[in-house]
Request: fold
Amino acid sequence: MQATRKLKAIFTIDESPKYGEKLDRIACIEYDKERKECLRSLQYDDTRYNKISDEHHGSLEWLWKNSEYQQWSTSKASSLLYVEGKPGSGKSTLAKYFKENIERQPNANSSIVTHYFYTFRGTKLESTHENMLRSILHSILEQDESTFFLFQKEFRKFRRANCSEWAYPSLKRILSSFANYPSTKPLYLILDAVDESEEEDRREIIEIIRKLCSEKNPCTIKAFLASRPVAELTHGTLHHVIKMQDENKGDISRYAKDFLNTDLQMSEKIHEATDYITENAQGVFVWVSLVKAELLRCVERGRPDAEILQCLKALPRDLKDMYTAMFHRLEGNKPEVIHDGIRLFRLLLFALRPLTVVELRDALMPDDDNPSHESRQEIHAIKKRITHSGGNFLEIKGVSPLRETDETVQLMHQTAREFLILTIPAASKLKFHISDAEAHRVITTTLIRYLSLYYTSPSMADIFSKITSWSPENFRAYAEYLNGWPLIEYTFRYIKNHHD
Reply:
C-alpha cells in the first residue's frame, strides 16, 4: 500500500493584482494587518498643536546653548528635561519650536519622536492622560513597526473583549514596557502643559515617565516636559530643569522692539519703551502681547513717541490687572454688544470642543433666522462681530488662510480662560454675569432650536423625508444639504452632554 504524503509550504509574495485569482483558495496572512488594525484603534483628539503660536523671528535660539539642555541633549543615557515657567511665559511655543527643530538634536534623524500638548481649551478628551497615551503610542507604532510586539498582548485582549475603547490600564502598561525595549533608536517624548492635564492620576503618569528615563534602561528615552510649577514635578529628583522666565528676557526685548518699530513707528524713545516692557513683563510673554494689542487700540499709527510712551506707562503692569481692565472695558459697550459678548463667552467657555467661525455664526443667529450657505461677506462680518464683542480675550485661529470656514475661535490664552471662569460667576452685580448651569441651559436651548430648524427646513420636509429608496445621488444631495448646517455635527454629538 502506497503511503500518502502531504506537503505544507509557506510563501511570501508581494501585493500584486496578478496573483489574485491564483491565491483565492489558499490561506493567507496579510503582512502588517494586525499592526494597522491596532493603529486604527488608537484614534485620539488633537486640536491644540496647530493653534500654538510660532516663535517670533530669532527667538528661542538660546535653547541650544543652555547648559541644562546641552547636558540633557548630549548624554547617551535616558534623562528628563523639565521646562518650568510662569503662566504665559511661552512654554508651549518653546515645546513646539523644539519639536519642529529637532533635527538640530544629535541622532534625531534615526530617532522616534512623539509629542502631546495637553489643553483645557480643546475637546474634553485633550486634558486626559488616556488621550495622551493613545496619541504618543499611535505615533511610536506608526514610526517604528518593530515596536508592535510591545502592543500585541494588550491589543489582542482589547480585540477579544470587543470593546470600542482601549482600557486605560492597558495603555499605561504598554508605555511602561518601553523601559525594557532593547532598541538602538532613541525615543523623544515631548509633553506640554502638564499642568492642564487631569489631576487624577497625574502623579502616576509622571512616575511612569521618570522610570522610562532611568539611566539603566536599554533604550535611550529623552523626555521633554513643559509645565507651570506642579507638585508632581516640583517634588522628587529631576535630571535637568530650565526656568523659562529666566531665559526669555532677550526674546521679549526683541519682540517688543520689533512691534514698537514696525507697528507703532517709534524711533526716538523706542529704547526706553523696549526696556520698560522688558523689565515689567517679568518673563510673561502674554502680557507683552496684550500690551501690543492695547497700544494698537489706543494709539494711532505714527503718533509722537511721547504719546505712545505715556499710553504704555498707563497700562496695568500685572497680567490679572490687565485682564480686569479689558473686562471692565467690555462692560462699557452698548447693550447689544454686551448681549453678543455674553452669548460668545457662554459658548466658548462651556462648549465641549473648539467651535469654528461658521458654527458660531449659526449659534448666534436670532431666533427667527434660518441658516443659509455662507459667503465671504458673512464670514468677514461674523469675524468682526466676534472681535468687537469679545475684545482681546478672543482670537481666531486658522489652519489655512485660504479656508476661512475651518477657522476656530478660542480664548487667547489659558490664563484668560482661568480669569473669566473665576471672574464671571463672581460678577453677580456686573452685566456679564454668566453661571455654569445657565450657560449649559442656554446652549441646550440653542441646539434644540437648531435641530428644529434643520428638521423643518423646506429641503428636509419636501425632498429628503419623502425618499423611500436612497440612491447615490440622494446621498450626495443630502451631504451637500448638511454642508449648509455647520453646527449640526456638534448638535448631534454634544446636545445630551449639555442637557445632562
Observations:
- Confidence is low (pLDDT under 50) at residues 373-377.
